[in-house]
């Protein structure tokens, strides 16, 4: 289970590169496989669309049981809204741990990739949440947003919106505004380290003026987060 | 500002490697510079102890103002309890953004490095917190722990304990136990991807039976987190 980082091969670890090179089969969502195309050229590819994760995992596991080396690819880190959990669940339920050797290879996750492009918004305690309610009841997401705001955490939102899901981010903003000021700085990064990269610094008041989709990460500051030059910074509290 | 990842050079990105190779001066905490010694051999090193961050940053900035290429090194990611925020703050306060060109190069942060060694405990919404109260009032940390537990977040603790700070982790455990079961799985990773690496899966009841220090990351599950084989997994909720 290989994390390929935010996008460009510049951010892929040597361990991940080696695993991809040694693999007989590469399995993953097709958009992410395209990002690493030069590395996996000529290999067998198991590539399915965005919502076919279970199918893709089962196919990967079947190849591994047959003795092939399979790289199950997630962009970012495989353990943060990636494929690692699902693959381990299937192996566990089907009692396959003695048939398949597993290694999880971490990658740079979108939260820290986006943060690096914005400056240093994650220097203090933060929450990572997905706004996708496909697999999580919306009430749970609402509750967590409210608690995160109450705790003055920096909040990182994965999957803030999609073509079909547009109301969630509006509601999330309302909940955050109950405990965070409208002037709280917000960073939006789309396609971090990929072609078409966009980096925006705005605030809770104006964040919905900017386009958001499944390629966007939204980072909402805590009560100390400030714009400094072109950067967004959450001070840690050093005496200067 | 360069993130060198969890430890071994296997997890350092090509972008970070290139920045280290091109730098005239390497600045950072000495333990972390030792981990990348083969790469930075022969270069000028500005290395100070753990609590001398401000001094180290100022020295790095002074060299950069003098026209040298400086790599200010953080292990993990420079933006997660690393050096990026402090350096940007100093540049901002001293009005130096037009004198020093800045790039923040992300790295694999300890939370995801530890998670990969444990399995996939961060597959659902999580909180990243530091238990160090050197720079943050302890009341704020207590409040955040309580809210994180209430929200059934997976909780990742950085800096859980040091030689001097031993009571914080005991109190944190008490607060988490107010909303999480004693049987909640806990993963402890010490020195991830370094010599002496230790990986333990335990639970909230027994977590204090294991040694904890500044090299440890503690991950406390949510109410779905399970031990599966030798792995710790937080299911995302796929129908299987």
TrEMBL record, chains A, B:
<dbReference type="InterPro" id="IPR051810">
    <property type="entry name" value="Precorrin_MeTrfase"/>
</dbReference>
<keyword id="KW-0169">Cobalamin biosynthesis</keyword>
<keyword id="KW-0949">S-adenosyl-L-methionine</keyword>
<dbReference type="GO" id="GO:0009236">
    <property type="term" value="P:cobalamin biosynthetic process"/>
</dbReference>
<feature type="domain" description="Tetrapyrrole methylase">
    <location>
        <begin position="1"/>
        <end position="206"/>
    </location>
</feature>
<keyword id="KW-0489">Methyltransferase</keyword>
<dbReference type="InterPro" id="IPR000878">
    <property type="entry name" value="4pyrrol_Mease"/>
</dbReference>
<protein>
    <submittedName>
        <fullName>Cobalt-precorrin 3 C17-methyltransferase</fullName>
    </submittedName>
</protein>
<dbReference type="InterPro" id="IPR014777">
    <property type="entry name" value="4pyrrole_Mease_sub1"/>
</dbReference>
<dbReference type="InterPro" id="IPR006363">
    <property type="entry name" value="Cbl_synth_CobJ/CibH_dom"/>
</dbReference>
<dbReference type="InterPro" id="IPR035996">
    <property type="entry name" value="4pyrrol_Methylase_sf"/>
</dbReference>
<dbReference type="Pfam" id="PF00590">
    <property type="entry name" value="TP_methylase"/>
</dbReference>
<keyword id="KW-0808">Transferase</keyword>
<dbReference type="GO" id="GO:0008168">
    <property type="term" value="F:methyltransferase activity"/>
</dbReference>
<dbReference type="GO" id="GO:0032259">
    <property type="term" value="P:methylation"/>
</dbReference>
<dbReference type="InterPro" id="IPR014776">
    <property type="entry name" value="4pyrrole_Mease_sub2"/>
</dbReference>
<comment type="pathway">
    <text>Cofactor biosynthesis; adenosylcobalamin biosynthesis.</text>
</comment>
């Amino acid at each position: 289970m290989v994390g390929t980082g935010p996008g460009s091969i510049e951010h892929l670890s040597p361990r991940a590169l080696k695993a991809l090179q040694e693999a007989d089969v590469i399995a993953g969502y097709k958009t992410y496989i395209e990002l690493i195309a030069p590395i996996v050229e000529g290999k067998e590819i198991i590539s399915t669309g965005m919502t076919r994760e279970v199918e893709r995992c089962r196919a990967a596991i079947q190849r591994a049981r047959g003795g092939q080396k399979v790289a199950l690819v997630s962009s970012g880190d495989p353990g943060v809204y990636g494929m690692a959990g699902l693959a381990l669940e299937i192996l566990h339920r089907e009692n396959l741990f003695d048939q398949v050797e597993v290694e999880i290879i971490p990658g740079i996750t979108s939260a820290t990739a986006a943060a690096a492009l914005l400056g240093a918004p994650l220097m203090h305690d933060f929450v990572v949440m997905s706004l996708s309610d496909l697999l999580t009841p919306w009430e749970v997401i609402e509750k967590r947003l409210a608690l995160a705001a109450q705790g003055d955490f920096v909040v990182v939102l994965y999957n803030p919106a999609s073509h079909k899901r547009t109301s969630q981010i509006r509601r999330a903003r309302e909940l955050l505004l109950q405990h965070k000021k409208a002037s709280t700085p917000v960073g939006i990064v789309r396609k971090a380290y990929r072609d078409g990269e966009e980096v925006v610094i705005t605030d809770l008041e104006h964040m919905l003026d900017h386009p958001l989709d499944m390629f966007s990460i939204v980072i909402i500051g805590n009560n100390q987060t400030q714009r400094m030059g072109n950067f967004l910074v959450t001070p840690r509290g050093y005496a200067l």
